[in-house]
Amino acid sequence: MTDKKQLSWFEDEEVANAPNMLLQLKQLEDSPGWKIISNVLDQQAQYRLNMLVATPLKSLDGALEQEYIKGEAEQLLTLRGLPTVLIEELGKVVKEMKEEDARGSTDDDTSRPELNS
User: Fold this and answer.
1) Whole-angstrom distance, CA of residue 111 vs CA of residue 29
2) Distance CA 117, CA 108 (A)
3) Is the Cα dihedral 7, 13, 16, 19 positive or negative?
4) Separation between Cα atoms, residue 113 and residue 13, nearest integer Å
5) pLDDT of 66-117, one tens digit each?
6) Do the Cβ atoms of 93 and 15 come closer than 8 Å?
7) Fewer CB within a 10 Å sphere, N or C end of the chain?
8) Residue 94 and residue 38: Cα distance in Å, rounded?
9) What is d(CA 64, CA 51) in angstroms, rounded to the nearest whole number?
10) Which three-class secondary structure string do you get for 3-61?
11) Are 86 and 25 a contacting pair, CB within 8 Å?
């Protein structure tokens, strides 16, 4: 059965639409617009990391500021990789849904509403 914890950021209705969402995310990841956004996110993260290397630590306050900047860079890189993560997770769900359909799921109708659409 599809692991609901695995897709906790999606609504049940969206899980039912996983194959379509997977296609849309793949198209997004391959689009020229996403390539531009991804490049900007990468440049912004690299800029912040370069700031850390170029700025010597002078005080405890400076250490806190550096940690904040590192956090910003990590968040930018996480955002850049989000489509890939979602594609991987949805790909697992779609594969599992297809396998369950092929096996002729023995679950009752209430446990897999996404297959009854």
Assistant:
1) 32
2) 14
3) negative
4) 9
5) 999 999 999 999 999 999 999 998 898 888 888 888 888 555 545 555 454 3
6) yes
7) C
8) 26
9) 14
10) CCHHHCCCCHHHHHCHHHHHHHHHHHHHCHHHHHHHHHHHHHHHHHHHHHHHCCCCCHH
11) yes
pLDDT in tens, 18-49: 889 899 999 999 999 999 999 999 999 999 99
**What's the maximum distance between 2 C-alpha atoms anywhere in the chain?**
65
Angle CA(25)–CA(47)–CA(43) in degrees, nearest 5? 30
Backbone angles phi, psi at 57, to 5 degrees: -80, 125
- What does the alpha-carbon distance between residue 25 and residue 62 come to, in Å, rounded to a whole number? 40
On whether the CB atoms of residues 97 and 2 are closer than 8 A, the answer is yes
**105 phi, psi to nearest 5 deg:** -45, 135
Nearest to 34 by CA among 90, 88, 82, 86: 82
